[in-house]
TrEMBL record:
This is Dihydroorotase. The gene is pyrC. The active site is at D247. Keywords: Hydrolase, Metal-binding, Pyrimidine biosynthesis, Zinc. Its EC number is 3.5.2.3. It comes from Pelagibacterium luteolum.
Amino acid sequence: MRSITLRKPVDLHVHFRDGEVLDAVVPYTARQFARAIVMPNLVPPVTTAQMAADYRGRIMAAVPEGVDFTPMMTCYLTDATVPADLVAGHRDGIFAAAKLYPAHATTNSAHGVTSVEALDPVFAAMADAGMPLLTHGELVHADVDIFDREARFIDDILAPLLERHPTLKVVMEHITTEEGAQFVASGGDRLAATITPQHLLYDRNVLFEGGIRPHYYCLPILKRRKHQLALRKAATSGAANYFLGTDTAPHLKHLKEAACGCAGVFSAPVAVEAYLKVFAEDDALEHFEAFASLNGPAFYGFAPSETRVTYEERSWTAPETVSVENREIVPLFAGENVDWALAPGL
Ligand code: DOR
Ligand code: ZN
């Protein structure tokens, strides 16, 4: 039986929601991760340091007793973001980063940014403060095919933005394409990317295997196999500018299995195990700790966890559903075999 011991991983991209869903999902992330970067796309969005501090309090209240877990908060950028307020929130230790959602790109992005260039004063202040910008990297326009949104975002928005702000640190969240992986590789040490488990495990065919499969629907959408393979190569290389960010995005079952279903894969209950499957299949377990526990903290500038955890190659069955009061959420690998397990007692 293979096993791996590593510093406790960090999830650099999670959605916890609020209320009952928050209470139900936080324990899954807190079980496996020392810290997480928490997305701000609540309703209403987290746009002030006070809102983020309050939200952090609600998250901490949902962490089980005795579990050591640190949520790191982000600010949702809007057309009205005030540079001084944003960097004050960073300086005060509330905001780890700020998130750019192009307007209408994804779940709860209606308040997102309509003109990226108009936010240049915000980006300049962030660069001065050393505050990372996290991007939802899709250009959403009626003329842009859904499968081309990421490449178009890079060409039309991100490359010019990086040129205008040469010292701004940027994380392209959840890259899904060969173009995304290549662009990040060429960006030096101020550009990085998170990669989700589903984009490493699947290509777009899984969305239509025997019928339409809403639980694989997320944004950016799954791409062709050549992109999946490029992402696997990037992640398993151990290179410093790729790191773990699950984009775990819980939606109630009935809201995904619907005529207009929500985007998001709830991966938190099986997250580290899902990535381990990929690294084991690609014979790259020696690079797993870099991807899962070291590269993200190094980019953000915080210390990796001092706690060591062990995962063993041991089979178990993922739950079909996770309960939220009298509703359910369907996780990644629902009812399927999982190859890796957290060693007990550690
Ligand atoms: O699939 C997704 N779900 N992609 C996103 O960008 C947002 C997320 C969510 O909040 O549900
Ligand atoms: Zn996300």
